[in-house]
Specification:
With 270 residues, this protein is α+β, with helices and mostly antiparallel strands. The protein is built from six helices and 13 strands. The protein has a seven-stranded mixed sheet, with helices on both faces. A hairpin with a 2-residue loop joins strand 9 and strand 10. The radius of gyration is 20 Å and the shape is globular. The two termini are 34 Å apart. About 2% of the residues have low confidence.
Length: 270
């Protein structure tokens, strides 16, 4: 059963582009979003604690990417990332860090969290995950796992509220709409309206060709299709996961390989 949650968002610098904190009622965890440009000069005590963090960037192929890590001092670890990039030991450039800290976290717990977040992000395929290795065999007590499961759920809520759909699970819509269908030129896709836009369902097949104007008139959708193929969301013309688009027109354009009006292309089965 769904229930309401109270979230306090604070714009530290008075701007959504600066440092932002987010907290859920009755939870001792805290989210801090901080731009890369503010890391070196940051003096905040609350970001020097134990936690996990997400670095958002584009990789060398222009794909939306995320590095997920853990640290016993988040701020120092973020500074280390910057030093490693400056020394050419880190190849990706991130622009935003989102950290999640908690008073009761320790090394074993954050290793558990990091591994779970990396696994879940890879399954969702919304971002290319840059993290290479995690501690997958961390042993915790049953009671600790229960507490961490709540922490994980709260992180998923807050990171989505902050604008990053790393853990988007479009298929788990609690009030699903009726299925709609998009067909033509070899395409056989199933979709439905969802909370964030329009979701194309796993197993949907895209068109076997693209019109010439797809690269020019609707270049944004053409580029999105290339990203979905590079991320593994689309493999062999088939959606490997449920994927949420911003609109039915965007979904139809990717499926059909041409400019498309979502209102006309998605229809009930006849």
């Amino acid at each position: 059963m769904a229930y309401g949650r109270a979230i306090e968002i604070f714009l530290v610098d008075g701007s959504p582009d600066g440092i932002v904190t987010a907290e859920l009622s009755n939870w001792n965890g805290k989210a801090i979003k901080i731009p890369r440009t503010d890391i070196i000069s940051c003096k905040r005590e609350d970001i020097t604690g134990v936690g996990v963090y997400f670095l958002f960037c584009e990789n060398d192929r222009g794909l939306d990417s995320v590095y997920i890590g853990e640290a016993e001092n988040i701020l120092e670890r973020l500074k280390q990332h910057i030093r490693e990039y400056d020394a050419d030991r880190e190849k990706y450039y991130w622009s935003i860090a989102v950290a999640f800290l908690g008073r009761d976290l320790n090394k074993a717990l954050i290793r558990f969290l990091e591994n779970r977040f990396v696994e879940t992000a890879r399954e969702c395929k919304q971002y290319t995950v840059l993290t290479k290795n995690t501690f997958s065999n961390t042993v915790l007590k049953e009671s600790q796992i229960a507490v961490m499961e709540e922490f994980i759920d709260n992180v998923k809520i807050l990171i989505n509220v902050l604008g990053y759909k790393v853990f988007s699970e479009a298929a788990n819509n609690e009030t699903p709409t009726d299925n709609l269908y998009c067909r033509g030129s070899g395409a056989e896709a199933v979709g439905r309206f969802s909370s964030g836009g329009f979701t194309v369902m796993k197993g949907s097949i895209i068109s076997d060709h693209e019109v010439d104007s797809f690269k020019t008139r609707v270049k944004g959708y053409h580029d999105l299709k290339r990203k979905l193929e590079a991320n593994g969301v689309i493999e062999g013309r088939k959606f490997t996961v449920d994927y949420e688009f911003n609109s039915p027109s965007a979904a139809a354009a990717v499926v059909l390989g041409r400019s498309a009006n979502g209102k006309k292309e998605w229809n009930v089965l006849k």
